[in-house]
Design a protein that fits this description.
alpha/beta, Rossmann fold, N-(1-d-carboxylethyl)-l-norvaline Dehydrogenase, domain 2, 4-stranded mixed β-sheet, 12 strands, about 45% helix
Length: about 325
């Protein structure tokens, strides 16, 4: 297949490299500093799922969509930060054709709806990724932890499009565990619970996930986030895989945190690099929806404001 990865940071580089190593034609839209490295020395992935590498020239690297205008891709994997989703989706219009399927592989909620507006529900897929990727050095991505396989599903709940099966099989065959689901929206809200509970607090305190789970004071804060997310979901009339906050907390502390115990969140890494975070797609999203539906979200709002402060007062 001919696949375009739009926004090749750690996730995009890893997925793109593994797809290319397994025989697919892969192009990437990424920052100039990454393009130079990939063009000059290729790309490699190591860690949890073994070693995968492609030489220089195996992946076509671009810095703008216009450089590959006229190309007919089968899939575009959108892996930009959530605050760049609108820009990415708009840019991809110049490549649009009836056979192109867009896959949002991003953190937070709200991205899938943006992509669907541009591509339509029949050509929009969502992916839930709860695997840890880190750029260890330029040209090398390490997969550190994983709480579950990647899930890919269609915009309309209850069905699995053939396009989802095709790309999920390709990702899985590349060595990165991946499966399809008829309930991708539920998965995305499940990830919202997980990321909102862990990422802002871990970023603010500068610690890995396990340090939060081990501390009773951190647990109190995370429990508050989980309760608020459930209250907002109920008001929005959306479902996830657990009926109550207590059911999710049991799974969260006994399964998810142990599986990703040593992981340092991408939000913490963003703050350390002086980069913008995805706070607005996590607890920021919860707070905005809470205000729309009249649901108080004081814990989420406080964490959001702390991270916003840290973004604006670096160093």
């Amino acid at each position: 297949m001919n696949i375009l990865v739009f926004g090749a940071g750690a996730v995009g580089q890893a997925v793109g490299c593994m797809l290319a190593a397994s025989g697919h034609t892969v192009s990437m839209i990424l920052r100039e500093r990454h393009r130079v490295i990939i063009d000059g020395g290729g790309l490699a992935v190591t860690g949890l799922y073994g070693d995968h590498a492609v030489p220089a020239g195996a992946i076509r690297a671009f810095t703008d969509v216009s450089e590959c205008a006229g190309e007919r891709f089968n899939y575009t994997l959108i892996t930009v930060k959530s605050y760049d989703t609108v820009t990415a989706a708009d840019s991809l219009r110049m490549l649009d054709h009836p056979g192109l399927v867009a896959v949002s592989m991003q953190n937070g909620c709200g991205n899938l709806e943006v992509v669907e507006e541009r591509f339509g529900p029949e050509r929009t897929l969502g992916a839930r990724v709860i695997t840890g990727f880190e750029i260890e050095r330029p040209g090398l991505v390490r997969i550190t932890v994983s709480a579950d396989a990647i899930h890919i599903g269609g915009f309309n709940e209850g069905t699995v499009p053939g396009s989802a099966r095709i790309i999920a099989d390709a990702v899985n065959a590349s060595g990165l565990p991946c499966t399809v689901t008829p309930y991708i929206r539920r998965d995305l809200f499940a990830k919202l619970l997980y990321n909102s509970a862990l990422n802002p607090l871990g970023a603010a305190l500068g610690v890995h996930y396990g340090a939060l789970g081990d501390n009773p004071h951190a647990r109190t804060i995370m429990n508050g986030v989980i309760e608020e997310v459930f209250a907002v979901m109920k008001a929005m009339n959306v479902a996830t895989h657990w009926d109550t906050p207590g059911e999710y907390m049991e799974f969260f502390y006994s399964n998810q945190i142990p599986a990703t115990y040593h992981h340092r969140s991408s939000m913490l890494q963003d703050l350390e690099r002086g980069s913008r975070t995805e706070i607005e797609a996590l607890t920021g999203y919860v707070g905005r929806q809470g205000r729309i539906y009249g649901i108080p979200t004081p814990v989420c709002d406080t964490l959001s404001e702390i991270v916003r402060f840290l973004e604006r007062n670096r160093g």
